[in-house]
Design a protein that fits this description.
single chain; alpha/beta; Rossmann fold; 9-stranded mixed β-sheet; two-stranded parallel sheet; 17 helices
């Protein structure tokens, strides 16, 4: 696997030791690494981590009072209960910075920089930085810095739980989104996405101090977190920084597909996760762009009715619902209801574990995305080259020598291959229908078997309250939140006690704010 470029990391290390003073990243790289001989860019191009608009564009100053009003709405009232009462005002900026794509091609990306300010001692002076990786979106125009967008839940959560609590927040949109000119997004490509994260942090640190919060500086303490896709990105970034010798104060990857190879094996064996057509489209086309061997032609993997144009389909400026209406993506069906071989009938769909069987069933239909031939080739290779963590735990790691190129790529981006040396929290929910809990279980098991040198906490927000644990109150409120959603569904006519409504809300509406609240508490204890 390619390693994270040392140029951005060394500038990052300098920035971390600067006590908030500006660092000219481009000049620093030239001086340290003999630019223009550095391989990522031509002589006339900006080096990785260069801030492309200095100062960055101010999106506005959000006062603690106005944010309190915004999160006090019915949709976000849980935030206040979870301890996110705002303390600081925040200056919100739109960052644009130089980074690379999945094959190290030069490109640009954007993101958010949220800087706390105000009279409270927690809002000024030397403040810690928080690097955040967001979850999957099919919206190419996604911009986490736009807090005026009521659908920007993650941006509002970041502002409430971190920026208004005194953290300098850096949150990339990722290459391929917003103003980025990269024509694809390197979805779950651990090497590229960790570079993107580091480059955003380097650029953000070079922008400090900002005019609207001139007394707020970077203390050098760094926290890394992210949710869903961002959980994988956050962990890959934590690993890359650790390997480069850059100190991370603590990290909290949340609900991420860390055990990516095992997770995909489960999906192909009929445990199809919610949102699978979107994830498979983004994953397969990104890996094809980066590795070039996932298929010889899109029709090898995708059904003919979807294959034309699918490589450039996601992320898109067209809403996903419209893409479904136009026949460019199926609504839910990843695989055909006809098994590729009669021997696979019992996993078309899978029926265990029973509590997620209804989710698995929606992943099958007559308008399926993936061909039976490709599923057959995957299942054949999976049985010849078993993952050490699924369906049973043996070695705990990905298959040693997978033969199918997709499984090779999944192994390359699987994170069961390193041990953290800094305090780490893993958070999620055991009934997650989108990113299965097995990812957290396998990561936890791998780390326990390799004796990490730093404490690793694991929180299942949907687990039994045992008493005396630091997150028991969050677990109790999670039970109440589920009950509220179920009761609302029953009031609207649901006849299943609200179970379907809870599952549909589970990954985003339920688990996400509770895990972010836990991460905030965990970081505050370090």
């Amino acid at each position: 696997m390619k390693t994270l470029s040392t140029c951005a990391l060394c500038v990052l290390a300098l920035a971390a030791c600067s006590d908030g003073k500006n660092v000219d990243n481009a000049l620093g790289v030239r001086a340290l690494y003999g630019y223009p001989d550095y391989p990522y860019y031509p002589p006339e191009g900006p080096s990785r981590g260069t801030l492309l608009q200095k100062p960055p564009e101010l999106r506005g100053v959000v006062t603690a009072a106005s944010l309190l009003f915004q999160i006090g709405t019915e949709a976000n009232r849980q935030l206040l209960l979870l301890g996110a009462s705002p303390v600081c005002d925040i200056a919100v900026y739109h960052l644009q910075y130089a980074t690379v794509g999945g094959t190290d091609e030069p490109t640009a990306a954007s993101g958010a920089l949220m800087v706390p300010t105000g009279a409270d001692a927690r809002c000024t002076g030397a403040r810690p930085a928080l690097l955040y990786a967001h979850g999957t979106t099919s919206d190419r125009a996604y911009d986490i810095s736009n807090l005026q967008n009521e659908d920007n839940t993650e941006g509002i959560l970041l502002a409430a739980f971190f920026a208004t609590q005194g953290y300098i927040v850096v949150a990339p949109n990722y290459a391929g989104y917003d103003t980025s000119t990269l024509p694809y997004h390197p979805f779950l490509v651990a090497d590229q996405q960790s570079k993107d994260m580091v480059d955003a942090l380097v650029a953000a640190r070079s922008a400090l101090p900002v005019a609207e919060a001139s007394s707020t500086t970077d203390s050098g303490r760094l926290f890394v977190t992210g949710y869903s896709q961002g959980g994988h990105v956050a962990m890959a970034t934590q690993r890359a920084l650790q390997e480069a010798g850059v100190t991370v104060t603590a990290a909290a990857p949340m609900s991420g597909p860390y055990a990516l190879a095992a997770f995909a094996d489960a999906v192909f064996n009929g445990q199809v996760n919610a949102g699978a057509p979107t994830y498979m489209t983004m994953l397969a086309t990104a890996y094809q762009k980066v590795y070039g061997n996932i298929y010889a032609a899109p029709e090898d993997l995708f059904e003919a009715r979807y294959a034309s144009g699918i490589e450039g389909l996601l992320p898109s400026l067209t809403p996903r619902s419209d893409l479904v209406a136009q026949g460019k993506l199926p609504a839910t069906a990843l695989f055909s209801t006809t098994p590729p071989d009669p021997s696979y009938a019992d996993i078309t769909p899978a029926t265990q574990p029973a509590n997620l069987a209804p989710v698995f069933a929606t992943g099958f239909g007559t308008d399926n995305l993936a061909t039976n031939a490709f599923r057959q080739s995957y299942l054949t290779d999976q049985r010849l080259n078993l993952d050490g963590g699924w369906p049973t735990i043996t070695t705990g790691v990905a298959a040693a020598t997978p033969g199918l190129p997709l499984r090779q790529a999944l192994k390359q981006n699987d994170l069961r291959n390193w041990i953290p040396t800094t305090p780490t929290l893993l958070c999620g929910g055991n009934l997650d229908p989108a990113v299965f809990w097995l990812n957290t279980q396998l990561m936890q098991g791998y780390w326990e078997s390799t004796a990490p040198t730093a404490p690793v906490d694991v929180l299942d927000v949907d687990s039994v309250i045992s008493g005396g644990e630091p997150y028991d109150d969050l677990k109790g409120r999670f039970v109440l939140a589920k009950a509220v959603i179920a009761a609302s569904a029953v009031a609207d006519g649901a006849t299943d006690g609200g179970e379907r409504a809870v599952i549909e809300a589970y990954h985003t509406t339920l688990v996400a704010p509770f895990c972010i609240a836990a991460a905030s508490r965990f970081f505050g204890s370090i």
